[in-house]
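Escalation from tier 1.

The customer reports that the assembly of two entities below gives different structure tokens on two consecutive runs. Tier 1 could not reproduce it. I'm attaching the input and our single run for tier 2 to review.
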Amino acid sequence: MTVRIDNCFETLKLTNKKALITFLTAGDPNYDLSLELIKSLPEAGADIIEIGMPFSDPMADGPAIQASSLRAINSGHKMEKTFEMIESFRKDNSRTPIILMGYFNPIYNYGVDSFIEKIIDIEVDGVIVVDLPPEEDNELCNALESADLSFIRLVTPTTDADRLNKILQKTSGFLYYVSIAGITGSKRPEINEVENAVQEIKTKTNIPIGVGFGIRTKEDIERVGSFADGVIVGSVLVDIIKNNEHESSVKDKIMKKVREFASAV
Amino acid sequence: MDKLNSYKLGPDQNGRFGIFGGRFVAETLMPLILDLEKSYLQAKKDDSFQSELAYLNKYYTGRPSPLYFAERLTDYLNTAKIYFKRDELNHTGSHKINNCLGQILLAKRMRKTRIIAETGAGQHGVAVATVSARFGLPCVIYMGAKDIERQKPNVFRMKLLGAEVVPVRSGNATLKDAMNEALRDWVANVNDTFYIIGTVAGPHPYPEMVRDFQSIIGKETKEQILDQEGRLPDQLIACIGGGSNAMGLFYPFLDDISVKITGIEAGGMGLQGEKHCASLTAGRPGVLHGNRTYLLQDDEGQIIEGHSISAGLDYPGIGPEHAWLKESGRVEYFAITDSEAVEAFKICTKTEGIIPALEPSHAIAHLINIAPSLSKNDLVVMNLCGRGDKDIFTIAEHLNMEI
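Tier 1 run:
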């Protein structure tokens, strides 16, 4: 529900805090550990949880997130299992907003109507579909809006003023500012340029702005948090799964990182 | 639904052919795609652009390519009169150059200074490297690591031409992965880079633009067959990976309803398993690489890696206009197996003294299969879209021969 996302940003605002939005891929490296990680995130300081729906050909993502998608797919992950994870998460947590992120084909394949019905049922709050720009999002976006779910749109360094207005007309929850022209986890953003862009957008809308892509350190988060409403981290967390074959250490390391990041927003 | 007045009206302003096509790309690319569309529509109407392209087609590529009466193959099959459209005689050895010249002229017009491309068999990569050399622009070619292994002569040619060939190791390390990598490069280099897509797929306006540049094949064929036979052919046959040579041959004939049109996909080791690349005959609609089209995918909507003996047909998607032509019933699509293609390759080589690429060998194989059903009065045009020099190692391996 959009309202859960709205409440999250409003509550944080009262204490002058920003949202830490963490991304992990569902089913990476396997169902059980992935569920455990997601359940542990709020306690470690994640304010909003973004869950990736694995896709074989994630063309806007870098090697880290592509590899995490493949680990999940190879472990036998399916769309239904993503839904099961969220259902299980919601049994203990009705507060933290959940955003599903992915590419259109697995959703189209599942059936847009069935997909929406299902995510309403399990209390997902918003959806990001990377390859549905405003020109192509009607078939999903309108149905989401009437179901009071957020369709979170991306604004990038290539988005000009005309497009920005078009995007702002149909956005809810928060706006995702992509801090680089590039793929996830690749080059580092020029934070000054990001700040200018975010300030420019803020003159046109009151909707919260989250910034992501290429943000890897506590210092980045502090700086971005000083002007944005939320900071999104993904590749840096997903890399921990790749670099640690022993599952026992993965959870501790990821949660340690999330705590460190949470202390900076 | 109303009866269609024409099969040549697509795409609509949203880049759609029926439900197929579109612009399913990340927001970062959207402004670039719109800019490309605008520039292309201007160039298309600009006489100086068209005349420069016509000049290069004639004097650089060697067009028009001959429409050749394949007399010995006709005798061998003892059936319809068979013509080859000889696009394998083009500079660089395939039809790919037709599109690359058009796109690099557009790149120049848009003041882009760096070229990127994906390639499967390497024919498109060679054509891109060629036009990049000709126009003095640096170029980066993304190629699956497996394809680099299968297509060494083409990799060497690209390097000689000055291109940087980047091996792609993600996924199955073939064409679709190379296309993902090229799209990632483009997203990261939005200001100076022009992406020359090699087939009639990808986000709008690529399917339309590549079709337009390749349509010279069909336009010439129409004039030539009328000149040589005084009438239109009864059937057109072309192989299909992404579908650019086929679209180029078919498009000018789409409204000539008396002409039967047939596209041939890679049936690999047969359609019953997963070892094939027949997206139209064995796949279903989905969204990949910027367009909605028929795809090879599993129950979860994950893309399946295709297989074909021919690296140029090894793509799990298909141009969206083909998807629409299939559903509208105007074009029929069939699949041919690896072994049938190799057999046809041998027959063509021995009867005509022409070594065809493995890609059009699929089309020849279909022709051989349907020969008994054709009449002696029939005229059939097959698009011989590439020459087979690049495939001799693959053929040798398939036949357990040593070179």
